[in-house]
Amino acid sequence: MTRKKINVTKPFLPPLDEFTPLLEQIWSSGILTNGGPMHQQLEEALCEHLGVKYLSLFANGTIALVTALKALRITGEVITTPYSFVATSHSLLWNDIEPVFVDIEPDTLNIDPNSIERAITSRTSAILPVHCYGNPCAVDQIEEIASNYNLKVVYDAAHAFGVECHCGSLLKHGDLSVLSFHATKVFNTLEGGAIICPDANTKRHIDNLKNFGFVDETTIVAAGINGKMNEIQAAMGLLQLNYIDDLLLERKKIDKRYRDALSVVDGIHALPSGPQEKANYAYFPILIEDSYPLTRDQLYAYLKEHGIYARRYFYPLISEFPMYRSGNSARSDNLPVAHNAASRIICLPIYPGLSESDQSLIVSLL
Hints:
Elements lengths: L5 E2 L8 H14 L7 H14 L3 E5 L2 H11 L5 E4 L6 H7 L4 E4 L11 H7 L4 E5 L10 H11 L2 E5 L7 E2 L2 E2 L6 E5 L12 E5 L2 H10 L4 E3 L2 E2 L10 H32 L5 E3 L13 E5 L7 H10 L2 E2 L26 H9 E4 L7 H10 L1
Parallel strand pairs: 1-15, 3-4, 3-5, 5-6, 6-9
Antiparallel strand pairs: 2-10, 7-8, 9-10, 11-12, 13-14, 14-16
Keywords: Aminotransferase, Pyridoxal phosphate, Transferase
Protein name: DegT/DnrJ/EryC1/StrS family aminotransferase
Family: Belongs to the DegT/DnrJ/EryC1 family.
């Protein structure tokens, strides 16, 4: 008998009978991309939902990150975290920027502001933090450091859709914030992403950059890229927004069931779920302590044997990959907290539609 396979995440797909009329509208209009009606509607709807004034949609989050750095004309060195998905630092290399890795905080696994200040040199031009698992970085402290040293801040907010901190939308922090709408994210457009812009002029510049630098039919003002979101992606996003509040509520319930059940298991520490103001429960990371009878990797293999495909997220560290490990900042003694987390963290399945019986199976195996 084939064992059921439970992955760490599963994309939400709206009912097909709701998607079909939108596809028919796209076909009838003959506009498949280049800022069509669906694209414009989704930008407006997302601005309203997220509580931001300006937003530029992208084909995916990685191109959005590359473009955000280009838009701010960032060069030299950028201080960032090794505890993230490789797109974070790859976006720096694509802009011929040198990533400088610093350690993370043990409780949030976000970039450590105290480590940031120690890593600043005359070549430092910006900070690229990540709101890891949707938990806000120390935004006020990072902003103060950036202001003191005249640095730009670009937030990789791939995990932080809809998250609110002490002052409203988390996405308002930094010079720019970048979202991912990949199929595995809380909100998805199949593939996709966005840059949150502080003003109309910045949005206009970014919109030009994502469309080859075109201003009009015959005028190109910059060496842009093709980063446009197409109409089918946008249509998927419009439907997702209809369900997002219910989906987040379901994620919250799953998160609570895990926390209640695992609170009595010695050797398992569940990380914080996010800010009290508004979390999105994007992931459920647990840290495997020495008192647990298995190592993290042994537990990962044990769960996999039973059809539970959890994820060692993030492992290996970015600083361990060949294109990064030769840098001085990638040394393991420079990143002790990050290395410890990478060897102990495992993310359990959490997604709308994860049944209580499947969740009970996961807990019983743990």
